[in-house]
């Protein structure tokens, strides 16, 4: 679809790390963010998976980037395609620790980040379908703490934005 980016957060697995051994981290949800516009999160937080296990969110959402109503998002996509040095060219997925019901004084805490480059989808002319992407430790960007399986279908939207750039 030319006016939409489809996103699916399928599942999450963790490898042994400070996250798996931290008893205060029990429930996890995942947030997805496009630059500053929009954050969507899985409606459920699920029990933290043990090493080697996987928790399934099967959560799908759509980011609207049509010309008529979502001008800012569309301009942002244009800038991704036109400015090769723009650092923020990715969808950012954040794995968040949701405090247990009986510990409401604890805050939600970002424990890991994963990224899908929209620019790369356009360059390779290929959507990301059920792909495992690395989740990096929020406290140590070089450490991988797990894998998030996601789908990002953005190619049609990016192509139509690219056509527009040529016509501007």
UniProtKB/TrEMBL annotation:
<dbReference type="GO" id="GO:1905515">
    <property type="term" value="P:non-motile cilium assembly"/>
</dbReference>
<dbReference type="GO" id="GO:0046548">
    <property type="term" value="P:retinal rod cell development"/>
</dbReference>
<dbReference type="Pfam" id="PF18111">
    <property type="entry name" value="RPGR1_C"/>
</dbReference>
<dbReference type="GO" id="GO:0031870">
    <property type="term" value="F:thromboxane A2 receptor binding"/>
</dbReference>
<feature type="domain" description="RPGRIP1 C-terminal">
    <location>
        <begin position="4"/>
        <end position="164"/>
    </location>
</feature>
<dbReference type="InterPro" id="IPR041091">
    <property type="entry name" value="RPGRIP1_C"/>
</dbReference>
<dbReference type="InterPro" id="IPR035892">
    <property type="entry name" value="C2_domain_sf"/>
</dbReference>
<protein>
    <submittedName>
        <fullName>FTM protein</fullName>
    </submittedName>
</protein>
<dbReference type="InterPro" id="IPR031139">
    <property type="entry name" value="RPGRIP1_fam"/>
</dbReference>
<dbReference type="GO" id="GO:0032391">
    <property type="term" value="C:photoreceptor connecting cilium"/>
</dbReference>
